[in-house]
Amino acid sequence: MYPFPFPLALLSALGAAAIPTHGPVPRAQVSSVNTMTSAQLSALAPYTEFARAAYCPPSIVQGWTCGQACQAVPDFQVSLTGGDGNAIQYYYVGYWPSSNSVVVAHQGTDPTQLLSDLTDVVIVMENLDPTLFPGVDSSVQVHSGFANEHAKTAPIVLNQVKSLISQYGATSVTLVGHSLGGALAELDCMFMALNLPHNITIKGVTYGTPRVGNPAWAALFDATISDFQRINNEKDVVPIVPGRFLGFSHVMGEVHIIQPNDAVECPGRRNSSLVYPPQSSNTWIFLGDDDATDAQCTIKTVPDIFGGDILNHLGPYQGIYIGTVYCT
Question: Which of 22, 45, 58, 82 is deepest in the core (most CB within 10 A)?
Answer without folding.
Answer: 22
